[in-house]
Write a structure and sequence with these properties.
By secondary structure, this protein is an alpha/beta fold. Helix content is 32%, strand content 21%. This is Methyltransferase type 11 domain-containing protein.
Length: 193
């Protein structure tokens, strides 16, 4: 995505933690998707994995959902719109139990050797909504750019099914919101019963 007039937060000492747009990323903000997910899955709790400054967690909270925001960048822990917990997949997974794990623009920053911690963090949710960068997609510390088939296989091994109809619905709603990442590569998974 082209960012004109948006300041990027990147920390050269910890590139594996990725970066984010200061004051929120307009290409990831998806209020219609949030409303749909709250209603569709009767959400009571969620984990925003890679929350940046917490804008999406705050939006879920405004919809009455108990939200947990997690991010790797120390700056985002101290400069946010929603209380945020620090996480680093090179050290450990997040451990929680929630209805939804929301994870936008994180997967491509996770090196293969730390994939287990990342997937275990995603598996905190009954439902997972994630995005991923595509092969060849440029970006800050993009080290794991794979196609949808790869992520479907990885998440399926963790006990989830890709919900195709829900994925397509989320992508259509994201398109309406201008949430380009979700519209392009959003994948919704439900835990296999």
């Amino acid at each position: 995505m082209e960012y004109q007039g948006i300041v990027s937060i990147e920390v050269p000492e910890t590139p594996h933690l990725g970066g984010n747009a200061d004051h929120g990323d307009p290409y990831s903000f998806a209020p219609t998707v949030v409303r749909h997910l709250v209603e569709r899955f009767a959400l009571r709790s969620m984990l925003d994995l890679g929350s940046g400054q917490g804008h999406t967690a705050a939006l879920f909270h405004r919809h009455g959902v108990a939200a947990i925001a997690c991010d790797g960048l120390t700056r985002n822990i101290h400069d946010n719109v929603f209380p945020t917990v620090q996480v680093d997949f090179t050290r450990a997974p997040v451990v929680s139990a929630v209805d939804l794990v929301w994870c936008q623009e994180v997967a491509e920053h996770v090196e293969e050797r730390y994939l287990d911690n990342f997937v275990r963090s995603l598996a905190c949710g009954k439902v997972i909504l994630m995005t991923h960068a595509l092969p060849g997609q440029h970006g800050y510390h993009h080290v794991n750019c794979k196609d949808a088939g790869y992520w479907i296989e990885v998440i399926s091994r963790a006990g989830y099914n890709c919900a195709v109809a829900d994925t397509n619905r989320v992508r259509a709603l994201a398109q309406e919101d201008g949430a380009a990442y979700l519209a392009r590569t959003g994948l919704l998974f439900t835990r296999a019963r």
